[in-house]
Amino acid sequence: MHPFAFALLVFMCASWTAGRECAARAISPERARARKRKIMARAYLTAVAAGLLAFWPAAGAGLVRGAQPPAPPDPQAAGGTVTITGNVLSNVHTGQKERSVFLLAYDGTPEINAEFEKIMAEYYPDKGLDADAARKLQDQFMTRLRYEVAGPLADAMWKEAEWTVRGAKAVSGVLSRKDGRKWITASRWEGGRFAFPAKMLAPDRPFVMPGKEPLVLKIGRGLSLRCLCVPAGAFLMGEPYYQCPHWQEDPPHRVTLTRPFYMSETPISQEIYEAVTGVNPSRLKGPTLPVHNVSCAEMYKFCRLLSQQTGRKVRIPSGAEWEYAARVGTSNPTFPERYAAQNSNANSQYGSPPLPVKSRRPNPWGFYDMHSGWWERVGDAPVVEHRDAVDPRHTPPEDQAEGTQSREHSHMGKGQWTYAISEIEYIGSEPDDVRFRIVVEAEPPSRPQR
Fold first, then answer.
1. Could you tell me the CA-to-CA distances from 262 to 72, 180, 399 in Å, in that order?
2. Of 343, 83, 340, 327, whose CA–CA distance to 194 is shortest?
C-alpha cells in the first residue's frame, strides 16, 4: 500500500475509534473531547511517519520488508587505517612559507602502487632525464603522490623531517581528500623500506659528449695536468624531492651554464701540487694521492701560480660546474648506487681516505674520483638555492680578495662517497682532509695589443 494511503486509513480509523470509545463509556462531553484529542494526536503522528516514507522508498522498503544489512565497505573508503611508505618532507625542503609536512608515497594501497608505476612508465624515459624531463617527473610525484600529514603526530613529524629523516618511512593512518589535496591522518610512523626501480639507479648516460680535445697544462718536472672540456648546458641541480633520503640543503632547481669550461680530470695530486708550489702539506704522503691539509688561501695561491706558469686563467669550480660535470650533464636522481663503480675510497668506513687518483673508473665524460673518500672543496659558500639560476657562483666574501682568503670561513664540499653526488657539506677554509681540483676558462685571456 502507498504510504499516503496508509496514513489516510490510519487517520480515519483513529477518528472513528475515538468517537465509539467516548460514546461507549458515557463520559462527560469535556472528558470526551480531551480523550478524542489524545487519540487523534497519536493518529496524526502515525500518519506523518507514514507520509515521510513516501520520500524515502528504499528506507521504507527496508523498514517494512526487513531488508538485510549492507555489505562491509572498503576499509580505505570507510576511513580504515592503511600504511603507506615514502619520503617524509616539510616546507623547509621546498622553501615554502606555509608550514606543512607531507609524504611522497611510493608504496601502500593498490591505487598508490599503480600510480607510481604509471608515473615511471610515462615520465621516466629509458635514456634518462634531461632538465625538462626531470622537472616534469618531479611535478608528477608532487601532484599525484603527495599526502599532507594531519593528526597528533604531524608536529613531531615536521620537527624530525626538518633535520633527521634520512630514509623511507612507513606511515599508518586514515586517508582522505579535502580542498583538492590528499591527506593522511597519521596514527603511527616508523622506518620503512622501498626498492627504487633499477633504471633510477643505473649509471648516467650523457646526452652529449665533449666536442673539444682535452687541454694539457705543462707543469714541470715532466708532469702535466689533463683538463677535459665540459660543454655548456642545463640540468636540474640538487636532489629531486622524490629521492630518498633528501637533504634540505640540496633543493632541486634548474641551472644553466652558458659557457664551456675545462676541468682537471682528477683532483690535484701531491706531486702536481708540490711541482707548482714547492711544498706538500699532506698528512698521508703519496705522489698520486690527492693533496690535502690545504687551506683555502693555499688553494687559491696554487691557482694563481699555475695561471702564471701556463698563461691560462685557473680557478676553483663552482658547485654547479662541479656537479654538472659529475653527472655528465644529466638530471637523473643521484642515488649513490649510480656511482658505485666510480667510488675511489680506500675502505667502506665514513671518513676513510681516498685511493690514488685514477684508481677507479672515470665517469662517461672521463672525470675520475668525483665520488671518493673525503669531501672535495669547491669555490662556493654553502648556499641553499631554490630558484633557477644562470651561471651561478656563490663565492664567499673572504675569497674575493687575496688579503682576506686566510680568514676562517665556510665553504661547500661535494663528492663524499657515502652521500648522493648532488649533496653538499659545510666544510671549513682551514687545512683539513679535503681534496680539490681546478677549472680553466675555455678561452685564454686576450693579449693587450701593442
1. 67, 49, 21
2. 83
pLDDT band at 5 (very low <50, low <70, confident <90, very high): low
Give the model's pLDDT for residue 347.
78
In degrees to the nearest 10, what's the CA dihedral of 21, 24, 25, 29?
Answer: 80
From-to residues of CATH 3.90.1580.10 in the chain = 200-441
Cα–Cα distance measured from residue 381 to residue 393, given in angstroms and rounded to the nearest whole number: 9
Using DSSP, state whether 432 is helix, strand or coil: coil
Grid coordinates representing 157 are: 613529524
Fold of 200-441: paralog of FGE (formylglycine-generating enzyme) (3.90.1580)
% of the chain residues with pLDDT over 90: 64
What confidence score (pLDDT) does residue 374 get?
92
Q: CA-CA distance, 330 to 55, in Å (whole number)?
A: 65
Q: What is the pLDDT of residues 15-45, one digit of tens each?
A: 544 444 444 444 444 444 444 444 444 444 4
357 vs 374: CA distance, rounded Å: 13
**What SS3 string covers 245-285?**
CCCCCCCCEEEEECCCEEEECCCCEHHHHHHHHCCCCCCCC
